[in-house]
Amino acid sequence: MCGRYVPPNEAAIERYWRIDRRNWPGFIKNGFIMAAFNVAPTTQVPILVQAHDGAIELIGARWGLIPAWWKDDKLPALTFNARSEEAAGKPTWRQSMRSMRCLMPARGWYEWCESEPVRSESGRTVRQPYFISDPAQEVIAFAGLWSVWERPGASPIISCALLSREAAPSIAAIHHRMPVVLRPEHYAAWLSSSTSAQEVEAMVANCEQQFEGYRVSTKVNNVRNDSEELLERVAAPLEVGSGTK
Q: What pLDDT does residue 111 have?
């Protein structure tokens, strides 16, 4: 399950895609637009969608999908990842999988290796975090789903989720799941509501497979830590129980 990732800045997104309309203010912190290096679920993130007139729009969406049919005041939990193997049949994802697909621009994502217990800065035993990316591409795109939740007497909420699948062999030793990272030649078809279910399934099956992962600091475990130093490589730690923190 991918629960943290690093999006590109808006300039990088605009270098990579032809964008017709923009409604994404950026990551605003203390009144300033900042880069983000540790995005967690429920954060507003940039997505690309295709409007009814065919225009490509860059908009902000809550990472954690709220289905259009949702009735409760309490928002659904754990809807930031959708398993690609079951998304077409599950009520939470079905409508979006059929006709509301989006791209979630990214530089890469974090994953935690279950087989590498390490000591955190506080001395707790935790899993070793890795940063995973495609070193050949500055920007990648997760296959995403989006939704618009209309609330009586309130503004609608745009939300999104990324599709996940079995990990590629290149990173399977780190974690058994990964986001579906689309090939660039599939971007247009993924966004189009006229793309058939069979074509969508084929794009997921033939997504990108070549990634590189390296160890990063356990500082990434705390979502309040959000700086470029989180992307720095760290040396392989000594095993837990060696007497060294």
A: 98
Taking a C-beta distance cutoff of 8 angstroms, is the pair 171, 89 a contact? no
- Phi, psi of 57, rounded to the nearest 5 degrees: -115, 135
Strands (DSSP E) found in 66-222: 81-83, 101-106, 108-119, 125-133, 140-149, 157-166, 177-179, 212-215
Query: Tokens 């160890």 — which residue?
Result: 215
Q: Quick one: which H or E segment has residue 198? A: helix 197-205
- Amino acid in position 166: E
Model pLDDT, residue 47: 98
Confidence of residue 238 (pLDDT cuts 50, 70, 90): low
Residue 32, classed as helix, strand or coil, is: strand
Is the pTM of the predicted complex or chain greater than 0.85? Answer: yes
Position 106, amino acid? A
Residue 36: both structure tokens together: 């983000």
Domains and CATH numbers, the chain: 5-111+131-168+176-207 (3.90.1680.10)
Distances from the Cα of 112 to the Cα of 36, 67, 71, 129, 178, angstroms: 19, 28, 34, 4, 11
